[in-house]
Records
---
Amino acid sequence: MEQAREIRLLVVDDEPGILEFLELGLRNEGFEVHTAPDGPSALTAAQAVRPHVVILDVMLPGLDGFAVCRALKEMGDVVVILLTAKDAVADRVRGLDIGADDYVVKPFSFEELLARIRARLRVQFPYLGKEVVIGPFRIDDGRKEITFEGRLLALSATEYELLKYLVLHHDTVVSKARLLDHVWGYDFGGQDNIVEVYIRSLRDKLEDDEHRVIRTIRGAGYRLDLP
């Protein structure tokens, strides 16, 4: 229960009974649950709340589940679990082909859906609510603290999210646009040089004067290298 509280779920279905059933059940499991009744509102909600998991019906008004799934995967890290009709094998195959992580057949068991959610979270978001050690970094997501080489860093909330993202995606070049979208949100209206300001601050706190930990990859973004 303690771990689930910070995990955001979005349930998308045009049947009010299913939405109410899943919202109540998943909230009772400790998740933060948001709902949407159609494709367009699902994408709006996803941009606003940045869910970790989306439970997505295939047959939706406005925009079908396949189009929504494709758009969700372009937004960033998110688990998509499709709800499909019992005999729609082609739908399941198509969904997996376009990036869905799993599927559950209607009518479904709540316990099975819950097990699939937890299984996918363990694979894609293993750090949620837990302490994770990656090289010289120790991330305590429950306490929102990061330790580097045994030293607790004094980080603001934004610095924490930025450094955590870079550490979890270490050895990967991350663009400035991707950092803005993930840390500041899709509707951030400020200047994009805010990323440079925060990177400079992180380097100071890491005592990374020679930029050996957080490297600037000219024209591409930033890459965190593990010493």
---
Amino acid sequence: MEHNWDDLRLFLAVAREQSLSGAGRVLRLDPATLGRRVGRLEKTLGAVLFVKSPQGYALTDAGAQLLERAEAAEQAMRRATAGMEEQSDQLRGQIRIGAPDGCANYLLPQVCARIVAKNPALDVQIVALPRVFNLSRREADMAIGVSAPTAGRLIVQKITDYRLHLAAAESYLAAHDPLNSLEDLRGHRVVGYIPDMIFDRELDYLTDIGIDRVPLASNSVSVQLQMIRQGAGIGVTHDFALPQAPGVRRVMTQAVSLRRAFYLIRHADDRRNRRLRLFADALSSGLRAEVATLEAKA
């Protein structure tokens, strides 16, 4: 049976967001209207597509089968329209970026604000989550990662290196024994990631410097930095975040200096999508410039 593309688009949003409210935000539709549209689609197909519960909308077997066909139709639509995009450099429409929260909090807001200022018809959504994004499920149009994936049909390009150092609040340093060597860290309270919630080996900073206990931990680097700002302890911080943390300074920079990288990750099917390619170029160049500017102030 042929399906109306608009119905499939709504179905995909609900399947990916697993809720009417989340899909409604993506589609800019009232959840009640969206619910009626889903119900109408189920009636047309003669099949229940979702199991509704307080936890959200979960796909049934029939829904999972439709998801495969809907995603295939989506990819066909993308390929068909890739060559029909406007030839001007003005970007428009909606683009969603997934990123780890350090990048999302301290770099993407200003970089994306500049891009949108030059492209008034463009809508940019930043999804900050401490995990790897699944582009095959179209959770985002593109993602920023701290390591280069080696599996999947993806376009991966390195954006830039960035640096990290140990840092602490001036108030903490004034109240505790001086730090002259890594051995001295054993007498200090350490702030870092929750060990079993580190989603990428590249983020396991403390293991690299021989620390095995984390008295104050969070899965969010922005929460970690706020703990450090409050004088709670010492931790590894991004140099590019320090300009937004007055009263925090780097320590033992000769003993501990880490280098990591950001990678831009896109779905291979978007290779010919000129709009996404132009945005990716603007995003990458903007991030490189912003990291360089902020690290010079650290």
---
Amino acid sequence: MEQLVKELVATLGAWLPAPHAALFAGLGEGSSFSGAGLWRVEHRDAIYVLRRWPAAATSQRLDEIIRLQRHLAAANLAVAAPLALADSPEKFVHTHFGANAEFWTLSPWLAGVADYWTYPRAARLKSALRTLADVHLAASSHAPPDANGGPRTARSPALQKRADRLAALQAGDLAELKSYVTRGPASLTRELAFHALAHSERALPRLSHESHRWREESLPLQWVLRDVWHDHLLFTEDRVTGVLDFGAVAVDSPAGDVARLLGSLVGDDEAAWQLGLDAYASRRQLAPDELAAARFFDASGTLLSAMNWVHWLYRDSSSLGPNVDLPAAHRRLERLVSRLRSLASV
């Protein structure tokens, strides 16, 4: 612990004077499943978040993420853009070279709590979807890294990957996952995994068939968040005051974000889905094919997320890291199984 504090103080000094005066508190250990390290930093009269990025991060990838964050923050959205280094105002990442390169960023603290599930109100749902639409509108003017600026229409990379993954599950991966779960120790989580496999097996033929269309469908593409869900939206009363975690951003269809957020917040509540879609449309219209894509994003994402958790829990736990919070993982899988049950009955 003493060595960690020394490392945090030394790292903080890349941005702030007198870093030894700061107070540190760990955030999200065992609950983010991202491999990142997060610390709340109190320094003088301000609060920050210090982030150590996952080992898989690269300087090029961080540059993409930070440029988008700064673009959105400049549009007065509830996004915390990383701060510039004290001695390099054009740089935002501190790199520590040890056995492996480590990348660190420091961002302002955003007020609010990710507590929609505790206080699910219509006003909050509307605020969430309007905020997402505002993020998409602002992001549409941010040039993709592989195009000459602005949004474009093409096949969705995410939907192509999902079609491939569904096909692989149908071709034998699902049966292989079942064999790993069967060999696991008896537990409530293993029973939950068996339920996930059974529901997925029933839903898989229909979704795999539908994926043929979405593999080839052209959709509007632009920068999107890709991991916008309950825990990444902060609320102050009924207003969104923070959008967190840009680690998964990429150029893809905004329909994927709409599906990810609505599925996370309201599950299979059709009336709430419509309320959220209407709120989103009050800022940014979704074309009919985007609306249809959102439904497939949601259904396929539910099944594939459940299978990912089964994979991580029973076949390869390396993605979860050594300090995984197993009760939290169980709760995540439990929510997915509840939705799979409805999906399998269609």
